[in-house]
Structure formats: structure tokens, C-alpha cells
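Weekly sync, protein design subgroup
Attendees: M.S., D.O., the rotation student, P.L. (late)

Item 1: inverse folding check
M.S. brought a backbone from last month's batch and wanted to see whether the design step gives back something sensible before we order anything. D.O. pointed out we never logged the input encoding, so this time it goes straight into the notes. C-alpha cells as presented (255 positions):
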């Protein structure tokens, strides 16, 4: 038995999320179908985390146990020839059997993109939330600083969350400007259901002047979902990267 760890990018527009659902097409389902075609095995892949319907991934990670003897370097090309064009496997590494893509992960980074201005970009409309009016960028940046550190993020998760603890650590939160586009990055040890999207809905309220940046710390401390903003649209969100102690996927992708 081998344990293979792979990175995959996907456009989530046409999918009902990463994880297999009772109804609807999923990224996991497409990858498992491709693996069955390639190896004849009925396998189950395990992702580093879920992404919602419509959410994208630049660097999702999954592992899979297989008896197939295909050289590890051949897996990406072999799978990509059997996958839809909106799913691309980038790297494959053989890892110890105890490795788990979710439990072994140390840091994850998400990016949320907002385009401001009168018109959306027709070519990037599936990857950016279009906000018609300018936003108070400095206020949004100030509010993000209140999220850094270890906190109980109950305010910023769905009331349907099933996690026993809502305590997570945000290591970094920063904003980059690219012309009319604002890219918000969040790096942490883990994220709750809808956490980044609810944070972004709150930041947009601050950017619109409907909420003061100074309130962010109190809203976080209150652990009350009703105090936060609405959940932001899914298509602006991308799982940017997943980091592990001993794996360098960026290096593997360059080789």
C-alpha cells in the first residue's frame, strides 16, 4: 500500500464544493472517478479541508492510499488526461502511511478578491466579487489586524458549525491592491465553516462605512454571529495554499 499526496487547482464554479455530497457534482467525485479509470481501484481521497460550492483552489492538497504501481512522477499527467479542464493536478509526492492531508497540515492561506469600480471584468468575474462603489481600504486593513492571534471565532462561523471548539489562530492577515482589485489574505492553523466569507462580509460593511473598524475586536470577542456582517459570495474566495512541515509543494511544482 502506498500513500500519495497531491496538490490540485480547480475552478469551483461548476461544483457543489470539494467534498462528495449526496446531490451535485464535486471536485472529490471527479478526482476519484479519474483514479478509478486510471487504476481500476475504488479509492477515496482525503482533502486538507472542504471548500464550499463555488469556491476555488490554487493549492488544495489531498492524500490517497493506492496499490497502483504507477511511478509517482507520472500521476499528475495521467490524472489530468482523465479530469475535466477546470481541475488540474499539479504535483504528486509519495509520503509515509501516517501522513494525513488534513491532520498533518500546519498552515492554510485563503485569498478573497474584490473588484471595485463601475464594471466587472468579464474575464475574471468568476474569481472576484464585484463591488460597484469604492471601499474604505485603510479602515478594512485596520480591522483585519484585530483578527491576528488566537481567538474564539464563534462570531465568524455558521450557526450550523459542528466543531467542538471554535478557537483558531490567525498568523497573518493582510491586504494587497492590484489596480481596482483588493486581495485579502488570511493565514491560520485552521478555518471554520464559512469563517473567511463571514469575515469578508464584515470587512465589506466596514469598507462601506456602515461599521467602524474599531468595532472589529469587540465583535470578535462577543462570540455572537448576529453582530457580524453577511456571508460574502463564494466566488471571490480561493484556497491559496496549504503548508506542511516537511513538504515543499512550490519546489515540486518547479521541478
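Designed sequence read out in the meeting:
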Amino acid at each position: 500500500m502506498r500513500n500519495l499526496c497531491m496538490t490540485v487547482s480547480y475552478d469551483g464554479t461548476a461544483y457543489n464544493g470539494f467534498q462528495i455530497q449526496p446531490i451535485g457534482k464535486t471536485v472529490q467525485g471527479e478526482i476519484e472517478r479519474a483514479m478509478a479509470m486510471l487504476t481500476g481501484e475504488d479509492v477515496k481521497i482525503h482533502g486538507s479541508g472542504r471548500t464550499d460550492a463555488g469556491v476555488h483552489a490554487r493549492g488544495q492538497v489531498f492524500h490517497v492510499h493506492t496499490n497502483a504501481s504507477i511511478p509517482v512522477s507520472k500521476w499528475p499527467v495521467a490524472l489530468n488526461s482523465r479530469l475535466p479542464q477546470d481541475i488540474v493536478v499539479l504535483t504528486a509526492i509519495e509520503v509515509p502511511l501516517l501522513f494525513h492531508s488534513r491532520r498533518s497540515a500546519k498552515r492554510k492561506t485563503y485569498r478573497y478578491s474584490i473588484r471595485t469600480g463601475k464594471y466587472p471584468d468579464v474575464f475574471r468575474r468568476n474569481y472576484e466579487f464585484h463591488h460597484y462603489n469604492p471601499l474604505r481600504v485603510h479602515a478594512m486593513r485596520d480591522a483585519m489586524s484585530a483578527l491576528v492571534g488566537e481567538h474564539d471565532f464563534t462570531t465568524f462561523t455558521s450557526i450550523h458549525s459542528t466543531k467542538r471548539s471554535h478557537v483558531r489562530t490567525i498568523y497573518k492577515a493582510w491586504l494587497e491592491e492590484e489596480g481596482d482589485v483588493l486581495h485579502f489574505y488570511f493565514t491560520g492553523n485552521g478555518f471554520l465553516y464559512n469563517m473567511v466569507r463571514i469575515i469578508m462580509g464584515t470587512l465589506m460593511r466596514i469598507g462601506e462605512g456602515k461599521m467602524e473598524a474599531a468595532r472589529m475586536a469587540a465583535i470578535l470577542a462577543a462570540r455572537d454571529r448576529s453582530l457580524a456582517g453577511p456571508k460574502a459570495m463564494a466566488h471571490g474566495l480561493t484556497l491559496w495554499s496549504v503548508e506542511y512541515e516537511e513538504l515543499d509543494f512550490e519546489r515540486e511544482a518547479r521541478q
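Discussion: Residues 27-39 form the longest helix (13 residues). The beta strands are 2-10, 46-47, 56-66, 87-95, 107-116, 129-131, 149-152, 167-178, 181-188, 237-243.
Action: P.L. to compare against the previous round before Friday.
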